[in-house]
Amino acid sequence: MAKLKLDLHDIFNQGDRLETELQRVVQDAVRKRIELVEIIPGKGSGQLKKRVLRFLNQPEIKHLYHRVEKDSTNFGRVFVHFRF
User: Fold this and answer.
1) Domain chopping of the chain, boundaries
2) Helices (H), the chain
3) Which end of the chain is more exposed for a tag (fewer CB within 10 A), N or C?
4) Domain 3-79 classified CATH 3.30.1370?
């Protein structure tokens, strides 16, 4: 199974670029019919992870994927599952 990976460590403090990269990876997954996207906001204070989850919860994004899984063994990682 193919997957896409987005590491947000380098752009965590660049608000516009962060939204752009999240949008890009979701659109890439849809266009290429990739079933799994791994997003790595990192552990930190949890604010970036909350921002990623808010982005994924937007109605125009939420209808594109099947479910979101927060990694139970690694707090700094989120999986987005797509169903095609």
Assistant:
1) 3-79
2) 15-32, 47-56, 59-62
3) N
4) yes
- The pairs formed by 77-81 with CB atoms below 8 angstroms and a separation of 24 or more are 77/38, 77/39, 77/40, 77/41, 78/38, 78/39, 78/40, 78/41, 78/49, 78/52, 78/53, 79/36, 79/37, 79/38, 79/39, 80/26, 80/29, 80/36, 80/37, 80/39, 80/56, 81/35, 81/36
Q: What is the pLDDT of residue 10?
A: 85
